[in-house]
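Minutes, methods subgroup
Present: GH (chair), OT, SY

1. OT presented the first of two proteins processed in the latest run. Sequence and structure tokens recorded below as shown on screen.
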Amino acid sequence: HAKGRLSRFDIVIYLQRDPRCYFWNIAFFILLITLASMYAFQLEPQDVSGRASIFLTLLLTSVGFKQLISTWLPRKPYLTFLDKYIITSFLV
């Protein structure tokens, strides 16, 4: 090729993700953490410190897990179904 001219070669690869991986590695564990918070309702209503301890521990666990999985997932400029699911789990 002539001096100063560049060649171009394009490769197109089509990929598809398997959603089962996200279910078993992320959504399932978020579900378990959310269900574990229901244990606080089994405590006596007068045991405020016990209930608060369970809720705060599981909230911190959820936030830590969210930080961890954010490194696994691609960044998107919009909320995916999984993002909405995780946000909903914080609200429950």
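2. SY then presented the second protein from the same run.
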Amino acid sequence: IFKAIALGASGIGVGRPVLYSLASYGEKGVVRMVHMLQDELTMVMRLSGCPTVASITNEHVITRNLADHIVPLPADHLTMGTYMPLLPASRM
């Protein structure tokens, strides 16, 4: 979350942790997960010397090797090479 804010994000998706918490522990699990994320963000902000969220800048993260961590979407060669695409009913 800290890195996303530092790189300019105005929102962060945390879908999987919410689903796992909800499926495992219900509403109390989601509340606990949110508190854990808040505590973690607070700790990282303290360790980096940022008193507020507004004080987090891109100078707080290393961005020179960011391109090494971007993974392209894999191509589905089985579907592309084996199956014929479905055509709309108007073209049949």
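Chair's summary of item 2: Residues 15-48 form the longest helix (34 residues).
Next meeting: continue with the remaining queue.
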